[in-house]
Give the backbone structure.
Amino acid sequence: MRFRKKGRAFAVLSLTVLLLCGCGEEKKGDDYLREGKYEEAVAVYEGLLTDKTSGKAREKNQRMYSRLGEAYCYMEDYEKSRECFDQVISLAGEEEVQKEIYLYRGLCFEKLSQYKEAAGDYEAYLSQLAKEKEDGKKELSEEEAAIQVFAYNELGLCYLKQGEEEKALEAIDQGLLLEPEKEKKRSLMRNRIIILEYLARFEEACAECGAYLEEYPEDEEMVREYEFLKTRI
């Protein structure tokens, strides 16, 4: 049975750094990126990378590698994208890098079937998010709250891919505690049923599948799954 995944891999995300439009050539690259002209954007950003080592030069390179990483994501070149985000983290330092960089790199690792590394990055993102909340820096926006749910869902799937079903269930439950909107709740509920099945907790899985179908009766795959689970109890 398939896990319920995201649609287009990175459509749910946006890097805060990309909202900081530069001037001249940087803005030109940003415009290309927003317009979906990824190869053109890559050419501009690569041309703006510098060998200088001043503080401003390092900051500029961080911005360029961030934008390059996102462009390569949309081009589905996940290895190059991951390399760009590695550069951002190296330049900024693990404690100073924007948390969204970890989220993007985690998605790259996941696409590359490197689930342990992906889980580590999702954990880093969620840890930074929790610290910001504890420090009272800001309330989560609606978009950030949705991305937090998304991160827990992906973390759960990465744990499952590594055979760590209990950790997978814990991550999915953390996402459900956030009371996500209907479609994200649907994905989490569906994945929870699958994890319970992996754990051979068939009675629980069957009960939750029945409850799921009361909310989402159009899911034909889960209708079939429900019939199967009923044979296991």
